Amino acid sequence: MSFKTDIEIAQTADLRPISEIAAKIGLSEKNLISYGHYKAKVDLNSLPERKRTERGKLILTTAITPTPAGEGKTTVTIGLADALSRLGQKSISVTREPSMGPVFGIKGGAAGGGDAQVIPMEDLNLHFTGDMHAISAANNLLAAMLDNHVTQGNSLGIDPRRITWKRVVDMNDRQLRFIVDGLNGTANGVPREDGFEITVASEVMAILCLADSLADLKQRLSRIVVAYTYDEKPVTAADLKAEGAMAVLLKEALNPNLVQTLEGTPALVHGGPFANIAHGCNSVLATKLAVDYADYVVTEAGFGADLGAEKFLDIKCRSAGLKPDAVVLVGTIRALKMHGGVEKDKLNTENLSALEAGMPNLLRHIDNIKNVFRLPVVVAINRFAADTEREIELVRSKCSEHGVGVALCEVWAQGGAGGIDLAEEVMRLTEPESDFSYAYDLDLPIETKLETIARRIYRADGVELTPNAKKQLQQLKALGFDRLPICMAKTQYSFSDDPKLLGAPEKFVVTVRNLKVSAGAGFIVALTGEVMTMPGLPRIPAAEKIDITPEGKISGLF
Fold first, then answer.
1. Would you say residue 51 has pLDDT above 60?
2. Strand stretches in 288-358, DSSP E
3. Which of 73, 167, 364, 449 is flagged as catalytic?
4. Which of 104, 412, 481, 508 is catalytic?
5. Is 243 helix (H, G, I), strand (E, B) or coil?
6. 320 with 212: CB under 8 angstroms?
């Protein structure tokens, strides 16, 4: 039997005019800034003030710790929104924009898969409406103004050895991690060690996703700390008079992007910070727009629940005043068997003992959602053809022991029709008001917040700070940044900071090697283990298989 690829399914889809999609949630053409026939930005300035007596239900889709076997979190998010629509509900999916780094690297795009996709898929994965480029331009303008200030006399007394702001590019390029620039004479700047990050790791991306207005965006940009002076005082974008020009570059990017699913369900796709090196959530503006205009809003946060969900709940919801109503925890039997020690090429064989050995990973995520964040949760098993009834029953039984239901999800193969059971369970879970709480209090000291996340969410024995991180900790305290939330930069492949420790590891310590403030975004980034803010391409990049015909038809995207 031959199967169509994701891109082949997307290319044969019947796309509706974007104005027709907008009308489903009460938006008119005057509320749209069209980018062709099938995608548009929602012009926030054109929207009337909403005075709804009851906001839409907010459902977070998250996942078990990811493996090469795949989980399908975005696919489930999109399919669930389609299923809710099939049940007569006004629903919207709200997801992040793909970075071109993974598209041309190893992970591929982020438009869902099979019959649960957001379209136009090619546009979404390649440039889209230009938001990534606007963020890169704003970031790099600030870098240019910073280096220019140093070259032109340095009246602020910036120490070139303590410049913390890096340039960015939306591509995986390890060659740019560590560079020396400003060479070949005084006309070309001041020589210094430098480096690039991927665009999605930029604080500008985090700011765009957390800002709730253009005025808030500009204020947040002004607070970015870019360097320190010779007497160790922070230098901000406001000191360089850069925030106005940066806001100009981001003015259009601030508006959420509206597209559609294969079934014509409205989909907002806006912002794209990674969850392993940033806070991993789509924009506050897109989420707030959705809960104002829909009955059910299905959003997602990056990687496993220990990363994306924790940051969605402790950073985004806290900052934006959002209160989620339920959580969908996505897993696959294949991935759980991999957590139980099975090699990828042997996952299609029934293996109950390996599945049982991998279940603690799922159960730990369940426990965190239920007992740390106090939210109702349903497990969505993204079903594969090789899954057996005995394996499915084992997952149901183990989850039932923890008071959690399981819904088989077949949206990849069936679209919204394959998510009806999940949709009905989500509607049931969201009936009572949730008792949502955060994992930690902001008034706790930085080191206590780090310990709390490591112990409560990862189940570590504690946190160890390197000498460099200890020095940075004292500086952050002295500068008054100690009441900010924590954004943990950690491997996505393990609860620990060691990607090789699968399942539900115990008796480990999380090592924090660097602490830096993202004052504009409003959090402290803690870099752990070997996680990097500029990924590299794999031995065989996905880019090698991407091509285009003379007629302009793209192939190889996934």
1. no
2. 296-300, 326-331
3. 73
4. 412
5. helix
6. yes
CB atoms within 10 A of CB 441: 10
Q: Token pair of 79, please?
A: 């399919």
pLDDT for res 1: 40
Is 287 catalytic? The answer is no
Respond yes or no: is residue 275 known to be catalytic. yes
Does 412 qualify as catalytic in the annotation?
A: yes
Which two structure tokens, joined as six digits, stand for 401?
């022991």
398 is catalytic: no
Which of 75, 77, 287, 452 is the catalytic position? 75
HEC states along 495-527? Answer: CCCCCCCCCCCCCCEEEEEEEEEECCCCEEEEE
Q: What are phi and psi of 518, to 5 degrees?
A: -110, 80
Count, in order, helices (H) and strands (E) of the chain.
Answer: 19, 25
pTM equals 0.94
Question: Could you confirm whether 86 is annotated as catalytic?
Answer: no
pLDDT score of 437 more than 80: yes
Alpha-carbon distance 13 to 495, whole Å?
Answer: 39
Catalytic option among 312, 373, 384, 481: 384
CB 206 within 8 A of CB 223: no
Measured distance CA(398)–CA(515) in Å, rounded: 39
Active-site annotation holds for 192: no
Alpha helices (H) along 377-436: 389-401, 411-414, 420-429
- Note the Cα 379 to chain centre separation in Å: 20
3-state secondary structure of 326: strand
Set 107, 323, 396, 483: catalytic member: 107
Reported as a single tens digit per residue, the pLDDT across 448-498 is 999 999 999 999 999 999 999 999 999 999 999 999 999 999 999 999 999
**Which tokens in the block code for residue 288?**
């707030």
Within 64-187, where are the H helices?
A: 73-86, 100-104, 121-125, 131-151
